[in-house]
Amino acid sequence: MFDGVHRGHQSIIKQLNTVAKAKNLESGILTFWPHPRLIFKPEDDLKLLNTLSEKSQLLEKFGVENLFLKEFDQDFRNLTGEEFVRQILVEKLQIKYLIVGYDHVFGKDRSGNFELLEKLASELGFEVEKMEAVNIHNQHISSTKVRNALLKGDIEEANLMLGYHYPVSGKVVHGKKIGKTIGYPTANIEVQNLKLLPKKGAYITDVFLNGDQYKGMLSIGTNPTVGGTEKTVEVYILDFDEDIYGKEITVAFREFLHDEIKFESLEKLIEKLDDDKKRTEDFYTAESSI
Known about the structure:
Rossmann fold; alpha+beta; Elongation Factor Tu (Ef-tu), domain 3; 10 helices; 35% helix; 2 domains; 290 residues; six-stranded antiparallel barrel; two-stranded parallel sheet
């Protein structure tokens, strides 16, 4: 799936590009949409690290020349491992060299594995290579571990596994405009339903808008202090005062500030926002001095 295009995925892509260049071939990645777990276990309500657009942009950024997107439909899910290799990889994609992850299995009932690939490679005329796991803290990186870190608010660990700062994008939409009345006007971000959001709370974020980068402090939650019930994503952009309704905005998570808090008054909320703003400014000051 390459969900997240994390550092484990990046190690595969690096080797893919190296082999493609050495053998005068084009590099390509085959991935699927929707995620198989959304088909097999829809009750799980799986959230993804990347939207399709984000994944495509990341793969291009890391040098992949061709992206093949296969719909994960009923016919495709019923292919055995061998049928997948023969019909998709060899007949359709005409592969010459195949690189897979260390734990890769595929096909109906997980019938395909590296041993099958080695057997078919000699018969069908392609080479195959298995990559080793990429480890952090003596544990291999996985999309599931990145998701779990984000759901705990462990932004530093998630970003370490990703190799970049976790982004969330969307259109700026109208909210209740309460922030404006207390001196902290926020941009409400409309996020795709499938996109995973970190745990409720406040964060320091980079903000990307109209090709420029700003400093931001972001809230994920229901605004309990003012009786909110719907989950929202709102970012206050420091040193910024423009009308950006309808614009596309991206935030990249840098640091967790604190859990969502229900304050006893707006005055207490403003005190905390002032403190968060100072911590955000200190964070960027410290970063710029490194």
